[in-house]
């Protein structure tokens, strides 16, 4: 009977995993610049792109995400 309990547990775990949708923390932000001359200058960044999920962010949103990056990662690890 032990194998029945194990099988039931495995099926329940699989069902729970399928329903969960992953949440991107947007940690891998890639900056974009409008011109080659401005590349490398933080004050000239025009937008950001998350390399993990492909989401696009404005320069202001990207700066805000970068500023809270460490706190968001620590919170995610703790939960």
Which terms summarize this structure?
three-stranded antiparallel beta sheet; alpha+beta; elongated
Description:
The chain has helices at residues 2-19, 59-67, 69-78, and strands at 29-33, 45-50, 56-58. It is an alpha+beta fold. The protein has a domain at 25-79. It has a three-stranded antiparallel beta sheet, with helices on one face. The radius of gyration is 20 Å and the shape is elongated. The model has no long low-confidence stretch (mean pLDDT 82).
Instruction: Give the termini separation.
Output: 34 Å
Overall mean pLDDT stands at 82
Helix content estimate: 40-55%
Cα-atom radius of gyration: 20 Å
Describe what is shown at a glance.
The chain has 79 residues and is α+β, with helices and mostly antiparallel strands.
Would you spell out the secondary-structure blueprint of this structure?
Elements: H1 2-19, E1 29-33, E2 45-50, E3 56-58, H2 59-67, H3 69-78
Antiparallel strand pairs: 1-2, 2-3
């Amino acid at each position: 009977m032990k194998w029945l309990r194990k099988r039931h547990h495995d099926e329940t775990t699989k069902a729970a995993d399928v329903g969960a949708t992953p949440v991107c923390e947007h940690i891998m932000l890639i900056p974009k610049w409008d011109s080659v001359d401005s590349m490398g200058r933080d004050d000239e960044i025009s937008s950001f792109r998350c390399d993990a999920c492909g989401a696009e962010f404005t320069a202001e949103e990207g700066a805000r995400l970068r500023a809270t990056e460490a706190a968001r990662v620590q919170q995610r690890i703790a939960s």
